[in-house]
Design brief:
Blueprint lengths: L8 E3 H6 L1 H11 L3 E5 L2 E6 L2 H25 L6 H12 L4
Parallel strand pairs: 1-2
Antiparallel strand pairs: 2-3
């Protein structure tokens, strides 16, 4: 969700005086809050669910980048070979 310049930018003084209100807004809108110090952006507040989604996205991007590097380097093998090995390793011994 895009940041609203008129609603989502707060001073550190606003955050101190109106912490509860700022948190309610954050949870209600789902948008991040940008906190300024001396007129300059300093920190961004986001709710936990948004943070977890962003973290999962970043982790997936890192995995995809690693996979793309492997493909470019030719570190691949036929899918049939991989699936055969996966099937063997998934067999429960007992």
């Amino acid at each position: 969700m895009p940041v609203s310049i008129t609603e989502d930018i707060k001073t550190v003084s606003d955050l101190k005086r109106k912490t509860g209100e700022v948190f309610k807004q954050l949870h209600r809108t789902g948008r991040p809050i940008i906190v300024t110090v001396n007129g300059k952006p300093d920190v961004v507040l986001i709710d936990v669910e948004s943070f977890e989604r962003k973290l999962k996205t970043l982790n997936l991007r890192a995995l995809m980048a690693e996979a793309e590097r492997d493909v470019k380097k030719g570190h691949t093998r036929p899918a049939r070979d991989f699936l055969r090995e996966l099937k063997r390793s998934a067999t429960i011994q007992g």
